[in-house]
Amino acid sequence: MLTFQFNFFLSIFNPYLFTMLVASRLHSYKIMSPTKSFLKFLCIFLISITFIGCAARKERSLFNAPSDVVTDTIKQVYVVNDQGISDAYYKIKVNDQLAIRNVQNKEFGATTTLSNTTSNSQNTVGGSITNVLSYLVDIDGKVNLPAIGKVEVLGLSRREAAIKIQDLYAKQLLRDPIIELSVVNLKVTLLGEFSKQGNFLLERENTTLIDIIGEAGGINKTADPKTLKIIRGDRSHPEIIYVNLNDINSLASKKLVLQNNDLIVLQQTKSSAITEKLASVNNIVQPILVVVNLAVLILTFTR
Question: How confident is the prediction for the chain on average, in pLDDT?
Answer without folding.
Answer: 75
